[in-house]
Amino acid sequence: MNKFRVKLTLLLIVLIGFSMLCAGVFMATIFERSHISELKNNLIRELKVISITGNWNRAGNDESLIRIYTEETKKLSEYTGARVTFIRKDGKVLGDSEKDPRTLDNHKDRPEIVDALAHQIGFYKRYSDTTLQNMLYAAISVDQANGESIGVLRIAMSLAEVESTVNQLWVYLIVGMVILFIIVSFISYRIAAGITRPIEKITRVAQQITNRNYRARVNIRSKDEVGQLGHAVNRMSDSLQQQMNRILENESRLKGVLGNMSAGVMMVDREGGIALLNPSAESILGFAASELLGKRYDEAQQQAQLIQLIERCMEKQQLIREEMVFYYPAESILEVNAIPIIQGDDIWSGVLIVLHDITAIRRLEKMRSEFVANVSHELKTPIASVKGFAETLLAGAMKDEDTAKAFLKIIYDESERLNRLIGDILELSKIESKRVPLQLAPVSLMTVVEGSMHMMQAEADQKSIQLEMRVEGDLYLEADEDRLRQIIINLLSNGVNYTMEGGKVRILAEPVRAEQEEESDYERIRITISDTGIGIPKQDLPRVFERFYRVDKARSRSSGGTGLGLSIVKHLVELHNGTIQVESEIGIGTKFTIELPVIH
């Protein structure tokens, strides 16, 4: 624990010391910057005064100008105590208070001169080889009345005083930080000792508990987290002795159970009490573990079949596997395996019941069986028709030309219906098996609806049915255009087929917006296709999307329907992450409502 105390002390010292160092650096930096900023302001004020009071637009040759401006800069240097330089616009030095301008290089490329010519004012700080110290250069553009620059006035000031002040500040900071560091070290050690002392007490008691001394106690009166830990250790030592026997008993039971099983697992001990129930078993049986653990299996409100299975397993002490139908909490089909638990020396210690939910498997098998039966039934009718009329033709009906044409027309129509049926079956199989990849792209809903209406117009005209459409606004969505058109055409075709002559089929497309946000962007589009047809009975509505389900079988077959259209529509809508609903009333009509997301 001494190592932990030392580590904690060092950590506190480092954190506080680092914070003090950062604060000192920040203070010194701010002080230096503010000092230099004030110095810049003073230099600019002096330059502006010099620019206004002096005549910097004299005429004459370079020699005369150098002589005049050199005398002028020397006078100004005596008043300001700084080096003053006048540079012509082309960079030539015409006057300098400390050096002969003739010996100086062209100053056009000096940073402060460039900034002054470009922005009126320029600053630069660099080391001077002449004075052997850092210098701050400030420059200001001297302009004519028309705003054109004549040249640049520059003044240079030594930073030795600033640096001396900053260095002196650093000395004070370092001395203060050393003193504070010593004080902080002492305080940090005291804090660390106060934190680790109760932890040391808890550690000593914990070591005694590991040596099975359950009477050891932690004597801590504080109510903070460390105090709570001490009280928890005291309570732990009270319950450890009781729990030890229980742990040893449960350990032998848990060895017979595979962990993390997806199937439901329930264990019944030799006395018939339920000793173990995993979450999957809770979900399957509809009871929480707290309701069943400790109860006898025949008092746990379980199905009689399950209770009898456990009894038989206990009597025979051999594996029993059965399939059962459970009606609570939901109807499900379970495969129940009762396995006797035999430990060393052939000691029987209970029964392990494993529950597999095979409802989905049996449902798929039933659907497959029904599908085969439906397909067989649907294929049998056109095949029987074709065979019957073909036999009639072979028996002599071919001699009657009108009868032969009528029979051949029936054979042709039935073969066409057979072809459509097989095509729809293959199409539905591809869609259900996700073997139809969607070619998603931005689609104009107006274009798709108009095209679909145009394709159905001829069929509607044959029954004098009026087709109406309304698309609110310029609606676009991300979809497979061909599949979207297939959805709309299938629903329009249904509407035309089941609507009497002179009726109406309407299609409405509109954006779905949140309430009270009429002008907001929409995320879904609603397509409603309604008709004034014969309608669908209420009891048939939940089944209209099933394969081969027909409300009016005679009308469906006479219209050439296969019974798969709405099933295909439903699967295509779901592939687009959409939803479809149907509403209908007998004698009034049917309405299909589709909602599709704008973006997948």
Could you walk me through the main structural features you see in this protein, from its secondary elements to its overall organization?
The chain is built from 14 helices and 17 strands. With about 600 residues, the protein is of the alpha+beta class. The protein has a five-stranded antiparallel sheet. Strands 7-6-10-9-8 form a five-stranded antiparallel sheet, with helices on both faces. It has a five-stranded mixed sheet with strand order 12-14-15-17-16, covered by helices on one side.
**Rg, nearest Å:** 48 Å
How many strand elements? 17
Mean pLDDT: 79
Per DSSP, what share of the residues sits in E-state strands of 2 or more residues? 15-25%
Separation of termini? Answer: 59 Å
Helical percentage: 40-55%
Poorly predicted spans: 554-560
Output the number of helix runs: 14
What structural class do helix, strand and pairing data support?
Answer: alpha+beta
Main beta sheet strand tally, sense and closure = 5 strands, antiparallel
Give the overall silhouette: flat
Briefly, what is this?
With 600 residues, the protein is α+β, with helices and mostly antiparallel strands.
